[in-house]
Known about the structure:
Elements: E1 2-3, H1 11-28, H2 35-41, E2 44-45, H3 46-50, H4 56-59, H5 67-88, H6 90-111, E3 115-116, H7 120-136, H8 138-141, H9 143-164, H10 172-189, E4 193-195, E5 213-214, E6 219-221, H11 229-249
Antiparallel strand pairs: 1-5, 2-3, 4-6
Helix pairs in contact: 1-5, 5-6, 5-7, 6-7, 6-10, 6-11, 7-9, 7-10
Amino acid sequence: MRRIPTDTPLWTYVLLAINLLIFVLMEASGGTLRASTLVRFGANYAPLVANGEVFRLVTANFIHIGVMHFLLNALSLYNIGPLTESLFGKPRFIMLYLLSGISGATLSYFLTHGLSAGASTALAGMTGALFVYFFRHRNEMRDVARQYMIRILMIVAINVAYGLSPGSGVDNWGHLGGLLGGAALGWFFCPRYEVSQHAFGVVNPRKPRHEPELDNGSLMDTNTIAGNWLTVLIFVAVIAALVFLRGRIG
């Protein structure tokens, strides 16, 4: 059994460190449960975004509301981040994280007026991208792919049930926007494996946790972030159009 080509996770831990640092700074600056602190650090708040503070669609993904919110998102990132980054590679992973987070914040901005924040939009995006990955490689990975897809669907179902429960306070539109954005990006970013003529240097000997395996020989990934520049451009253009439309609607 030869391993598929993977990348050693790095950005997952960088993002965890960034989220922790921002959380500590917010706690020291008034507390993450105070609306004024959340707004000052860049929470997603529709009236301010409509007033030109579009940066909130980015910054909102790095701040959290309370200790439990932070710990749950940090634990989720720690669990699914390494797998996503190892399969998609560092460049595609960070693009997935940032763009799906922005897409979730944008849909939340488009359809709600409340205050929202958290990395769960980006986490939903990674979940969508992972599902697409295993769906596209279901014929090669067989039982492994089916097991992962079932787990992902269960996670999504649990989150939907919790999000729709009374008093949950979950930004369901943000989660949906992140999930759809991540799935769309995952379709184009998904690694395309081909048999390599030269096996040397293709397989990473440092096997990430839970790495799935294929049995069809030495493989290489022929898909790259550079080959998806048009996809990224269109994705950003759609987000910009939604933000512009929401601002015109008022």
